[in-house]
Amino acid sequence: MDLQQRINAFVKLGEFLSQFSNEGVKKKEGIANNDLFYEGFLHQINLAHEHNGWFTKENILFSLNQWFNALIKSNLTTWLEKYNFNIVQSKKVAVIMAGNIPLVGFHDFISVLISGHDVVVKQSSNDKHLLPYLAKYLEILEPDFRGKIEFTNDRLNGFDAVIATGSNNTARYFEHYFKGKPSIIRKNRNSVAILTGKETHSELQLLSEDIFRYYGLGCRNVSKLFVPRNYNFQAFFEAMYHWNPIINLAKYANNYDYNKAVYLMSEFDMLENGFLMIKEDKSYSSPIATVFYEYYDDINQLHQKLETDKEQIQCVVANGVIKSEVPFGKTQQPQLWDYADNVDTIAFLLKI
């Protein structure tokens, strides 16, 4: 199976996913193997939601829509054109996936297969329904994928390299367990936004998507704001307000109530609007329903701080403030070439 065959298979997978989006779930004509897989995938979406209350259908469909947008031929070609795939000798790559948002490990899965390697996947119990079904669809699309995809709940053995994503605590375990193997090991990261006070209402509304999508559980979700001294949060709260229905999810409301009680009993200063709290804090990782903020006095000093803390940061959201910034509202819409932790996964896979 050559690279073009692999690309063509993922393009067809994207076409299949195009039937499932927030704009509507509708069966289309001309989708490969649709009669075999369409209804079954609807069932998997329902199972994923029933198994994990954070995986609402809205958020599952949002994730699927992002992958449909990513897996178009021009994107795949742009992503892969700078690499030399002729040097690849097929190896077995273990991928240990997180389970914080739907299909969070899908990019690693695609990267291993598109590079010509075999993949053995160890999924999180929180996100175990969608990917195996899509893998089976791939095998029907392109029979040469058969035997190259394995899922396991057992201890990993017989692999040549590993990509593992987890918390800072599990990363220490991964580093010990996988020493001697080529590896990418990802730890906790969070995303931040830099506000200047000049943002429009529209920009702040877009920022709300970066904060609330997936209930803030992703590493690309904004969990902290950097704001100028004496920043007035009124415009910020007004722009957040259209997300107020989020409090109707019991799991989110329970976290909101718990964290609010903790802050009040601890006599921490915080501002809240009934579904979001903001609290001054130097940490990057904020609890659910909370966004931390920190004041800055000099933008150049802030640049230096972000550079110093870059190992803790996934994305920086801003408008014309920093070179590597992500536009407001775009953190959960990465391109295929926007690698987690800025580690080029394909380059890693081509040299193992």
From TrEMBL:
Organism of derivation: Geojedonia litorea
Protein name: Acyl-CoA reductase
Highest taxon in the source lineage: Bacteria
